[in-house]
Batch of 4 targets.
Target 1
Amino acid sequence: MALRVITLNLNGIRSAADKGFVEWAGSAAADCMGVQEIKAQAADLAGRFERLDGLDGHFHLARKKGYSGVGLYTRKAPSEVVTGFDGGEFDAEGRWVEARYDSARRKFSVISCYFPSGSSGEERQAAKFRFLERIYRHLAELRRTREFILVGDINIAHHEIDLRNWRGNRRNSGFLPEERAWMTKLLTRGGLVDVFRTLNPRPEQYTWWSNRGQARANNVGWRIDYQLATPAVAATARREQIYLERRFSDHAPLIIDYGYAL
């Protein structure tokens, strides 16, 4: 059996739909598709985006209009859907939706998560650091009880290989030493696996490009979209792809096939 998992920051689901996202999603053969930065409310989704070609949508939307929000489209109905993880500040921003597939012999989740950006200033960077502290604790607790794949826009490029202009970004949000150290901790002591990098060690593998200048045309990008998995699930990963043929947002879809059955 195979499990195809896709993640994509949409930068607005309505905008992405205008660029062909819905039609592409119907042909992508996903079993689970995590989307981030929906920038929509329930009324905007109604009758249009709750279901995509056999995939049922589950959402955690921000209270603030036109901001954040995550979704998870699933082909197989989960046994439970969990929205939110901290019960406060970040749940109000719509950053976590989790589909659980639990049985008598196994507990397994697929999670769509959108980490904050700190690029707008010190206040949001401080919020990002609070988020990292809380999400680390939550993931550690989750890992004690279940296997999972977390997909999403993490807004951190881990290593120099993960962005083109690493020298010029060492003091910028997304490549700060503290953020990179947090990522290292998550992938060592935290016990999770950066699945893409287990399959593809090559440079110039990016998932986001600035809209300024000719960044995408020149592949001046960052790898900030991830699939992170518990080791037993990560070990079944077979194929990866950053989908570049069509452009739905400033991010590209990240596709990974696992030899893992729901």
Note: The longest strand covers residues 107-114.
Target 2
Amino acid sequence: MKKLKLVVLCVIVAVFCVFGQGCFSPYKYGGERVDLYTVAVNSIFKANGYISSGEVFRDPIIEVIEEDKYGRVLFYYYEGCGYYDKEHMYDVAYYNDSYTILIMQKKMDNYVYFYEDYCYESHKIEDTKSLKDGVFDYTKLKFSELKEQNDWNKEINEEKCVKKPLVVRNKENLNVSEKTFEKIISDYAKNTGYKGNDAIYRYNRYNTSDAYGRELYYVWGIGRDVYGEGVSLTSTAQYYEFAIIFNPDGSYTQDVCIIELQDTINCKDQILAFKQLNQWNEPYIFN
């Protein structure tokens, strides 16, 4: 019996480490373009930073498309849950339904520079048959608007850039407790008509920070008792996807710190407005 309890405990700990926030992800980026990887994981909301095949984590697909005369890089980024294609001898990832085109302004020393909120555009994948050598076909896309927003072929303007240190793994949350996430989500759900008392929060994923230490997170949850009739096999469930911003000291204001997202692929404008509401990149006064 003791041995069985130990096995069960080990399984619980392993699941917590993978899906919770108490352990670091086993994945560490091993590709050559750490600079482009850093831009992507700091820009794409909901980014994992890896392709997962069961318990195996692999580098996301990163491919340079074009460079301008000042060294800007236009590139492709894709990640997701995948499997191994024996016929073509490469990993393919069909379970994430979008890919992203990004522009890095420059890399200098151990930092990358890019236009926050304007350096990327995500595209929904409508047809997985467009896969070629592990990359979805982006050749028919026009990048003129993205290039214009990022001053393509103009001199680099550092004043318009954010500066981020190179990273090889997406940051794990170490500062905010799961109880805090659960409280924020539960309060939101009840304020929007949810009647159950069950725990809704499931996991969080760090996205990026501003210049003063505010942190943006993607958070996922499931409410299994929408009408407050008790959790059962027939109870109505509701799935939630949120963006949450914490102040540098870990505090938050319930009315403005959380938004619910219906489309996490095309949410760039919504995230930008959310950041502005939370005074993103404005000086923070500690109480």
Note: The chain has two domains: 34-165, 178-277.
Target 3
Amino acid sequence: MPRRTFFNLPEDKRRLITDLAIEEFAAHTYHKASLSRIVARAGIAKGSIYQYFAGKFDLYLYILELAARIKLEAIDKAISGLGPEATLYDRLMAATEASLKLAETHPRLYAIGMNLLRETDKELVSRVMERLEPKGDNVFLDWLQSAVEKGDVDPQVSPLAASYMFSAVTMRLGQDLADGRLSLDEALPLLRQTLDILHRGLRPRDEAGFGGAGTDLTGETDETGESDETDRE
């Protein structure tokens, strides 16, 4: 994290160093990013940067924290407009849409996040995650538990399994968006369809069309001879 001397710098110099670091980490993975390039473009001696940060990793963490803060602010703003009666689906859609839109509003910060997701150095990722609390997963699990308590989600569904599914899908959408394989206009309908599938799967079984007691997920009849076809009507 930045040393006190960094915050004592004039605002324009702090912004210059921050902006150049964002450009460098957006264009390169952590190990390929160069502290020398950053300080050369900033017009400062390389030794000076160590007065502001302990090293490249501390500067990297600072930029990641900035990206995370902007992302959380965008999500909080999107969620705050939903109101207290918002469903789990409403919250997930609003939060993920706000997150994906950062690819257009803050493309470099978004690219840094994607670079971290693609990182093959597991030790580096572990060090980053130890320093940056993964708040997103905790929020999702809180929303899921609240939906279970309200009867909107099947209590037999594993919150962790649902979290894995949600994270995997949104991560893939984010990567395709960052790599240019999808535009935002293409990604958002896919997000809505994906969340609709997840939403249907999370609902209590009799509401989701999977049948209640006496039926299984294949639509086969049980010992009572009753089929779940009536539940599908």
Note: Residues 66-226 form a domain with the Tetracycline Repressor; domain 2 fold (CATH 1.10.357).
Target 4
Amino acid sequence: MKNKKLLLSLAVGGLLSFTWMFTAFTAFAQESTRTREEERRIWRGPGYANDASAQMYPESGIKYNAVYRVPRPDVDYLKAGTRVEESSLAKNGVDAYFFENEISDEVFARMDGKSYREGCTIPREDLRYLKMLYCGPDGGTYVGEMVCNKEISQKVLAVFRELYNHAYPIEKMVLVDDYDGDNLQSALDNNTSCFNFRKAEGTSQSLSFHASGKAIDVNPKYNPYLWTDEAGIRQCGPEESWEYADRTKDFPYKITEDDLCKKTFEEYGFFWGGNFVYDKDYMHFSFGKRG
């Protein structure tokens, strides 16, 4: 009888010990996993299969996948405009160069007082900083950067990945803040960009869709904005782009009705300014509707 009680006590004690050790190990594992996940950044974009975290946007019928992405210093800290060699692409994979982050203090310091002006109505946390690849004028691969609204960040990554896949030419892609937030100077340098808290060009005094980070200007020097002012005089922005106002001519970077850029943006729910009824904004793609 005593032996049975002893065996029972040992069994119960062993079970309690095992339970305690299992609980402690589980807690440690969860804390370790949480720590690792806190060191990672969420990346959303094309090319990753993860049905558990997939999101569907009914308005476009396009599925976007979200996965955890471990930071890679040799990729993440490349400055916009850096040429990426084929050996690096082969080593890291193209997907590694397409990602989004929240607006860091370093990036916001570049924006503050420029694209992010006093009275800006969109919170900093609603914006995202994107890194992407694009095909430059020499046919090489370059690092681009862009700030946009978080609501469209996945779509923007998908659009520019598609353009890169087809070697669509883009001359430059840096933040408009490199031009002190001057939209016309950025356009004149043929810089592709998105967020800029400003009013719309032309006669309108309303905020531009760029002010909410939901409009993108692509190769703007060669795809100008044409409008009629209050005096009935036709205007062009940038003014130096008048030679590209005649859309019957052939020249580099021209966006047309059948252009891959226009078709790709439309597939992802953007509206092309070249289809505006009265004015024409050939560089402009706004999400969801005209803006």
Note: Residues 41-287 form one domain.
